[in-house]
Amino acid sequence: MLNYDDLNDNQKRILREKLNISRIYPYYLEDHNIFLMKKEELFQYIYVCDLKKVKDAISLLNNIMETKIKENDKDKSFMQVLIENNEKVIKIDNNIYAYKE
Questions:
Q1: Of 60, 63, 72, 85, which is most buried, counting CB atoms within 10 Å of its CB?
Q2: Taking the CB of residue 27, how many other CB atoms lie within 10 A of it?
Q3: pLDDT at residue 58, as a whole number
Q4: What are the C-alpha distances in Å from 51 to residues 32, 38, 59, 87?
């Protein structure tokens, strides 16, 4: 998990713009249940940590197999495409994302 202070100025600006706020106070992300993570950690948090049954694993695999890659996503990994297709995810850059529970 990343802290807001771990982001560079450009990444902080992008996050503020996506959240439509002008300033992030110290506990803003925590108070609003927003987590900053790198893509591998976020993928595990969203998809892998909830796998408790074989049925869940099969559902995840079906989701991966059904995912259509758009022309503008051709240089992205499946992990990036799955993460970015989630409506709770805010892309900050190619490796850092915010997730709002």
A1: 60
A2: 9
A3: 81
A4: 25, 20, 9, 20
